[in-house]
Amino acid sequence: MTQARYKADIEKLIRQGDLLYYAILLEATPSRIKISDEEKKKLPNFRTEYQSWYSEALAMIRQLLPDRLQDFMSYYKPLKPRKELNPATYTISDYLQGITASRGSSVIVGFDAAVMPVEQQVNIVKALNRRFESSLFDIRALVQADLFDDELDKAGELGKKGFARGAGAIAGVVLEGHLATIGHLEE
Questions:
Q1: How many other C-beta atoms are found inside a 10 Å radius of the C-beta of residue 46?
Q2: CA atoms in the 13 A half-sphere facing the CB of 63
Q3: Could you give the number of structural domains in the chain?
Q4: Last residue of a domain, which of 117, 133, 149?
């Protein structure tokens, strides 16, 4: 996939994420947002559109920003068992299931607690854009590519000199390293 295509897909995810954020904000906390009826009609239905957006965003983050994958997923569902349900432990999946917590007549955690996790997920998707603007993200890939190139050059030289097993062993190690990198991104 080319860099331009990644950027276009990320921009689409950001636009969809922003609309989903406004949709949940309107649904969960209608007093916090004032928009016209015409603007309301343009907003997606959060409960039907979110899962599709999440799945696409998750795949993109897994590929381009794997260090943030756990953060992104933790806003959707708890990564470990919770001792109690409160605003700090409430997730988007709780909202989608219609879960709230009350004690007597007072609400401990309501639907409004899902707004912040959605906002944070959208912010992580927005960080994907910076992936292409900062050279810091490319340092690891460049160093690894240089290392692989050097090793493959050595394997080529060994092959030319008749050391097929040695060349194959080095090429195998390079391939294994590359596959390990890809495997890391898919976890």
A1: 23
A2: 10
A3: 2
A4: 133
